[in-house]
Amino acid sequence: MRLIAAASALVSALASAEAATLGAAVNNTASVTYDDGVTITTVKTPTASFTVEAKRTPSSIEFFRYAPLAPDAVPVRLNGSDYKPAGASSFQPIGALKSASGAALNTASPLLLTHADDYFSGEPIIACVTDLGQNGDPASVETLDVDMSTANGDAASLRFYETGANTGVFCGWIPTNNSTPVKNDAMMSITHGAAITVRYQDPFDASEISTASAGVDPFGRLFDSLTGALIDGATVTIVDDATGAPANVFGIDGVSVYPSTVVTGQTVTDAGGMIYALGSGEFRFPIMAPGDYRLLITPPSGYAAPSAFQAPAFASLPNAPFTIIPASYGQAFTLAATGDVELDVPVDPITDIVVTKSAGVSSAAIGDFVRYEITAENRGQSPAPARFADALPAGMRYRDGSARADSAAIADPVVAADGAGLIFDAGLLPPGATRTLVYVAEVTSGARSGEAVNSVEAVSLGGVPISNRAEAAVEITDDLLRNGVTILGRVSEGECGEKGEGLANVRLYLETGATVVTDENGLYHFEDVSPRTHVVQVDEASLPEGYELVSCKDNTRKAGSARSQFVDVQGGASWRANFRVRRKAGDAVSAIVENPDSPADIVTPDTEYRKFDKAWLETQSPETAWAYPASDATPTSPSVNIGLKHRAGLKADLFINGRPAPIENFAGRDVNKTRITAISRWRGVDLLEGENRIEAVLKDKTGAEVGRISRKINYINNAERVSLIADETRAFADGKSKPVIALKVTDGAGRPVRAGRLLSIEVSPPYRTAARAAVDARNPLTAPLATQSSVPVGQNGVALIELEPTVETGPVQVTIALEGGAKKKLSS
Question: If you count Cβ atoms within 10 Å of the first and of the last residue's Cβ in the chain, which end, N or C, has fewer?
């Protein structure tokens, strides 16, 4: 017996499997034939079948666009692109690949493509899938299938072709428009914001899935930083950051030159004739080479760029979200690859909102209603939001339904969780217009006796202040006077024994930090004072030049000082503390007349302000310089007077922290006799807590800027650090002189705390402050062993602690209360 052709079937099957395409089924049947000398018999095996699968390899997807002039373009061979029509079981060719301008592209040769993150409507989408395992036949161009969809509802099944035999990279294309989406046709409908997604799943490995997305119709927008309105008519130019020359820009066909300067909201046409209809506020630079660029913005009349506001201010505006990057403020930006420019640019309306506030009553008690009136005037060139951030005093609450704008009812404000913060929205305020807002607040049981101050300012829709801060005060009274305790008194001028006239505008402090200013009759009062011993002190810096305090009675209430008095306060009564001032010997004091043509305009500002009168001006040269406040001055209140010396004939505009100083703060200017040197003055300029940047811009008669000058003024209230000033400390124990401990008081950044800030201190035995010694002398049985007192901080953060005369020697330990309950111990 002999076997015949037993192995031939196996060899044939292996050869068939090697030549089969991916996904093909291979069937194998073996047979054995034998001859026993009588009969030839053939026996066949059952058929064995298997499918040819791809290797398991990772995949990726990338988008491309046709850009033959781009320096980073690479040649890619596109061998075809098919789609599966709706209801069909097979794929059909999409047709010739065309550029955005409609020109046919020669796919018989490699095309120059660059990576794409976004596509414009009318531009073909080109995508490639890399999956080396799908390269089943190294000798032929193979295919794979993908799904493409858009966020606006279009979708298609596509077949991509390998870029060449044995590459494992498969590419295809599909044209685009912005018409109504039709699924499963040979066109993708794309619109701005509707992202394009390509999804590929390995047919032999369900776990191997890749997706990629691209944006649609990228453009930038110019918008109003206060209202979010899109701004047309602005000129936008893109330039090379290194040279400043206009940048090279191409249209969406990748070859036609596109203008480097466009006007927002207007139609643009590239060199190939393609028309780009820009929407409101839009600007567009479609395709640019990698490099560093900048945008130059010329906004329309009434607006300024770059904006002074940052991204958080725009988050809640209409038309948000906005794409805000450093390039939105004129800074350079980098395109790492050929592509488009997509960012938004805020511009600031030139506004000057002046807000005033008044209360309908001067005093109120618990259960009363207070009518507040807010008036806002737009003195600028552009509309601004009539939106007000109002802060109610403690214990006062907004009355629902009471808000009126120009007598018409408006929606209730947005009320903060604590009930104090109110946000009123009264629409837009045109240039030159005035709007009056009124509302009612109730005085609740949580209100405290004393002055209740309500403040308000206009804010942008993003919550950024755009006006001055206005205040209105109402005196909250205890109608039964059950707990009301008042310290009152008078500061009068003249020698001891004389009747004397009251002296206005003198500042006094209480050790609690409370401060008041005398009225035109020299009268003052502190209300709602707690029953205990208090210290009332005169701020000597607020006295007119040439005046000094004088002690007419030598008693322990004055603690040996004419500037302070102790007051033992008990509940339900009024307590008095009077002070006397007189002119220094040989000194003549005269009021300053701000405007000689208006004799009624006589003021008594602080000492520093007085020094810069017309006599001083006659000695000055015209170089621009700050006259006052002094460079090392530390204001006693959150407002200052400012004087600027400059050449006559120039106009000075003042800016506080980047915002124009309200017009009502301008106090006029004086010019010397030769008409060469002038001084411009501002009065009561509001400061913010911390560092304030003050800048003056000088303009000639044509309005052209000819110079600017800036400085910083710190208003620091938080005492966070304290140190000993050895050079100014006088530590002697002769039993007659008062030892003085000098301290430097600053915030955490080392900036001096404001003058007038009261510092709580404790001096350990056997030493006492001079002030506390006087209290103990009056109450020897109740005087504590460790003594507490308060001292005011002077200019440049210096506080002087006067001790009781002593003959004890040794270190003095002082404990100072700092911000947040912290305490600092010093030894001298």
Answer: N
Residue with tokens 């004397």: 500
Distance from the first to the final alpha carbon of the chain = 125
Q: How many CA atoms lie within 13 A of 299 on its CB side?
A: 23
Q: Which of 305, 256, 295 is nearest to 276 (CA)?
A: 256
Q: In residues, how long is the chain? A: 828
State how far the alpha carbon of 629 is from the alpha carbons of 547, 640, 660, 683, in Å. Answer: 21, 8, 19, 11
Q: The whole model's pTM is what? A: 0.46
Q: Cis before residue 629, ω within 30 degrees of 0?
A: yes
For residue 493, which of 485, 504, 484 has the smallest C-alpha distance?
504
Q: Are 518 and 502 in contact (CB under 8 A)?
A: yes
Q: State pLDDT tens for residues 240-260.
A: 999 999 999 999 888 999 999
Distance CA 565, CA 560 (A): 9
| 458-515 pLDDT tens trace | 888 777 788 888 888 888 876 544 455 678 889 998 877 777 788 888 888 887 777 8
410 neighbors 404 (Cβ within 8 angstroms): yes
CB 662 within 8 A of CB 653: no
Q: For 330-350, give one letter per residue: b (16+ CB within 10 A) or e.
A: eeebeeeebbbbbbbbbbbbb
Backbone dihedral region for residue 766 (phi beyond 0: left; psi -120 to 50: alpha; all else: beta): alpha
How many Cβ atoms are within 10 Å of 78's Cβ, its own excluded?
Answer: 24
Contact 299, 305 (CB under 8 A): yes
The pLDDT value recorded for residue 783 is: 40
Question: What are the CA-CA distances from residue 364 to residues 185, 442, 481 (Å)?
Answer: 76, 10, 13
- CA 417 to CA 402: how far, in whole Å? 19
Asked if 160 and 81 touch (Cβ cutoff 8 Å), the reply is yes
Q: Is the peptide bond before 349 cis (omega within 30 degrees of 0)?
A: no
- As to burial, measured by CB atoms within 10 angstroms (0-12 exposed, 13-18 middle, 19+ buried), residue 532 is exposed
User: Radius of gyration of the chain from Cα atoms?
Assistant: 42
**3-state SS, residue 422:** strand
Contact, 558 vs 551, CB < 8 A?
yes
Q: Is the bond into 321 cis (omega within 30 degrees of 0)?
A: yes
Euclidean distance between CA atoms 567 and 536, whole angstroms: 7
